[in-house]
């Protein structure tokens, strides 16, 4: 599915970081942890997320699996 808008901007930023290292607590620009990358990606789209994945999991609006869009964050 083609993406557009803020989700597309977040995805484009995240994809541009491919090849960067994973580092616990990493906030970029050349090393990231999972929540650091999502914070930076969504910041590029004009959205401010909380820093930790735990806090991110309660931020925003929940959607069903069938309604996921590019850029949506999935938590287990």
From TrEMBL:
Gene3D superfamilies linked: endopeptidase domain like (from Nostoc punctiforme)
Stored PROSITE patterns: NLPC_P60
Pfam families: NLPC_P60
Entry keyword set: Hydrolase, Protease, Thiol protease
UniProt superkingdom: Bacteria
GO molecular function: cysteine-type peptidase activity
GO biological process: proteolysis
Location of the NlpC/P60 domain: 4-76
InterPro entries registered for this protein in UniProt: NLP_P60_dom (IPR000064), Papain-like_cys_pep_sf (IPR038765), PG_Endopeptidase_C40 (IPR051794)
Family: Belongs to the peptidase C40 family.
Protein name as annotated: NlpC/P60 family protein
Native species: Geodermatophilus siccatus
